[in-house]
Amino acid sequence: MANETGRIRVSVVGAKGRMGANVVKAVTDAADTELALTLDAGNDLTEISPDNTDVVVEFTVPSVSLSNVLTLISQGVDVVVGTTGWTDDKLDQVRAALANAPRADQAVFIAPNFAISAVLADYFAGLAAKYFESAEVVELHHPNKVDAPSGTAIHTAHTIADARRAAGLGPVPDATETDGGSRGQVVDGIHVHAVRLRGLNAHEEVLLGNPGEQLSIRSDCFDRGSFMPGVLLAVRKVSGHAGLTIGLDTFLDL
Question: What's the pTM?
Fold first, then answer.
C-alpha cells in the first residue's frame, strides 16, 4: 500500500529503542518509504490511523507487544512486528483480532528474525535435519536482551522438529540423567542453549550430528543494520498478505 506520492507511510512504535532507531533511519533513507509517526512508551497509539499511516513497524518488548498489536489492529493499519516472545496463545489473540478487524484485508506480519542470514540458516536447518541423528541449537546475544532463548532459536527448534517428524525420526539421543539445567531448554524435543555475553550482537548456530560427521549452520549478525533489509522487505510486502503471517521466508524466493 502506498500514498499518492507512491511511497509507503511508515510509523514506528518503539522508535527510541535500539532497533526502533535503526528502523527510523532505514525508513527515512529508503526511496519508497516515508516516516509518518514515531512513538514510544507513554505515547498514545490511537494517534496512528489509516489517515496518516500505511504500515506500522513495532519493535518494543514482549510484555507490551501484544497489547500494542491489538490496538494497532483496531486502528485499521497493517503491522510489521519485530518484538519476540510470541506464544501460541498470543498468536491466537492476534488472529481473533484480525477476524474482527476494521478492514477485511488487514495484515499483521511477525518475524522471529529479520536478518536474511538467520532466515536462511533456519531454512537450511529444516532441509538438513532429516539426515542427522542429533540436533541442537545454540543462540548467542548481548546481555541486554530480555528474553531467552531467542525467538529465532525457538523457531529454528520447531523447524528442525517438524522436519524430523516428517522423516519419521525419533527423539534425539541423550543419556543425561540429571543436568542441573545445563542442557538448555527443550523446545519441541530439541535442546536450545542461550549465551548472553558482552560484545556479542545476534548469533545462532545449529549443530547436526551423525556417527563420524557433523554439520554446523551458523548465522552472525554483527550490527543491527543487518536487520534493516528484512524490515523494509516486510514493510513492502505485508499489505499483500491479509491475516497473520509469520516468518520472513514467506517473502523470500525459497
Answer: 0.82
CATH class given for the domain over 116-222: alpha beta
Topology classification of domain 8-110+225-251 = Rossmann fold (3.40.50)
Binding residue per annotation — 114? yes
- Please write the tens of the pLDDT for every residue from 202-243: 999 999 999 999 999 999 999 988 999 999 999 999 998 999
What would the grid cell of residue 82 be?
Answer: 519485530
Q: Is residue 16 part of an annotated ligand binding site?
A: yes
Where do the structural domains in the chain lie, given as residue ranges? Answer: 8-110+225-251, 116-222
Q: Which residues have a catalytic role annotated?
A: 141, 145
Is 152 marked within a binding site?
Answer: yes
Domain 8-110+225-251 shares a fold with domain 116-222: no
β-sheet bridge partners, residue 107:
243
